[in-house]
């Protein structure tokens, strides 16, 4: 398999709920007026706590400093696994569990923190730019590694890498076992032809900026399973659109414009973390994806500024059993 280091330098930010009004204009510009920005990587995810915005440096210029904007200090690079030479963005994602053993677990063992962003098309593994040499030295035996530069894929090899985090023979620190919440929403992972984006503009703006969250009072302190949870994710990356929403939100959109897999799968969410997770702990994604991979259960995985979220198929008895297993960590 091939591992591509994509030609994007990303920032991970958070906009507070009560500060969203200050960013409505730039966000609408980034979503709907992509020809007026040079942003090629944009993702916006609403959770009960805040809005997580992941975007490249050109898009980041659109966000003005504010007390309502938090910015993680690192520059992040997106990695993408490609099988059989096919561009991964041309077909539906195989899920983070398919790369759990080959990518996620080895990086965790080398103390590399990852930020995951699964979309309808593919799975992006974000790593800090400063950790890139460790990533390459860790994965080069398993993958042919390429770095995209100006539209060309250039082979990358690890040569004389010296980094305190590099392979050192020490056993990886065991990650903290975080509690999980399993809300009752069923979720859809969908896509949309970018040319039809204007057709859903009114609905998308309403869902993102004006819709109220279910069980509003229960969300500020997520200490128990929620009946429902507000979660909506929109990504526009290199011309491909991905949407993650619950079935209630889906009903607001024209059915003939959004498309999903032929099976029309619905997904259940596993929300990881009782308190905000931060960005420095390693192994959180591996902790969730490894048992799912062992049971051959596909999953989408979306990290946000405060918590992580796995989406697993709501269709199998095995899934129900595995959810109960994960829930036992509470």
Short structural description:
One of its GO terms (molecular function) is identical protein binding. This protein has 330 residues and is α+β, with helices and mostly antiparallel strands. It is built from 8 helices and 18 strands.
Notable traits:
VC0802-like; globular; alpha+beta; 20% helix; eight-stranded antiparallel β-sheet; 8 helices; six-stranded mixed β-sheet; 330 residues
Q: Please, could you describe this protein's structure?
A:
The strands form 3 sheets. The chain has an 8-stranded antiparallel sheet. Strands 7-8-6-1-9-10 form a 6-stranded mixed sheet, covered by helices on one side. The chain has a 4-stranded antiparallel sheet with strand order 11-16-18-17, with helices on one face. 20% of the residues lie in helices and 29% in strands. The protein contains 8 helices and 18 strands. α3 (100-109) crosses α4 (132-139) and α3 (100-109) packs antiparallel against α7. It is α+β, with helices and mostly antiparallel strands and 330 residues long. β17 (299-303) and β18 form a beta hairpin. The longest helix is centred in the last third of the chain and has 11 residues, at 284-294. The protein has one domain (1-84, 91-168, 176-208, 229-329): VC0802-like (2-Layer Sandwich), CATH 3.30.2130. Mean pLDDT is 84; it is low at 87-93, 160-166 and 213-225. The protein is globular.
């Amino acid at each position: 398999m091939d591992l591509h280091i994509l030609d994007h330098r990303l920032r991970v930010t958070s906009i507070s709920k009560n500060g969203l009004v200050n960013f409505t204009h730039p966000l609408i510009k980034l979503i709907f007026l992509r020809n007026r920005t040079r942003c090629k990587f944009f993702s916006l995810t609403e959770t009960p706590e805040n809005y997580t915005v992941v975007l490249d440096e050109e898009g980041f210029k659109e966000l003005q400093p504010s007390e309502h904007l938090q910015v993680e200090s690192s520059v992040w690079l997106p990695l993408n696994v490609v099988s059989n030479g096919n561009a991964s963005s041309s077909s539906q994602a195989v899920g983070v569990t398919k790369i759990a053993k080959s990518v996620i677990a080895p990086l965790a063992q080398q103390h590399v923190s990852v930020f995951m962003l699964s979309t309808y098309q593919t799975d992006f593994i974000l790593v800090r730019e400063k950790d890139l040499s460790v990533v390459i030295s860790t994965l080069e035996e398993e993958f042919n590694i390429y770095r995209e530069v100006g539209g060309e894929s250039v082979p990358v090899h690890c040569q004389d890498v010296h980094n305190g985090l590099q392979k050192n023979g020490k056993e990886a620190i065991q990650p903290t076992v975080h509690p999980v919440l399993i809300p009752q929403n069923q979720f859809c992972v969908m896509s949309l032809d970018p040319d039809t984006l204007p057709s859903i503009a009114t609905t998308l703006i309403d869902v993102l900026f004006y819709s109220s969250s279910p069980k509003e009072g229960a969300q500020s302190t997520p200490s128990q399973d929620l009946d429902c949870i507000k979660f909506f994710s929109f990504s526009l990356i290199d011309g491909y659109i991905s949407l993650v929403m619950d079935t209630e939100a889906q009903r607001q959109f024209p059915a003939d414009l959004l498309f999903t897999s032929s099976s029309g799968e619905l997904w259940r969410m596993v929300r990881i973390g009782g308190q905000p997770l931060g960005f420095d702990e390693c192994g959180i994604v591996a902790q969730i994806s490894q048992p799912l991979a062992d049971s051959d259960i596909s999953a989408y995985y979306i990290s946000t500024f405060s918590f992580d979220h796995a989406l697993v198929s709501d269709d199998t008895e095995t899934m129900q059993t595995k959810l109960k297993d994960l829930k036992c960590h509470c």
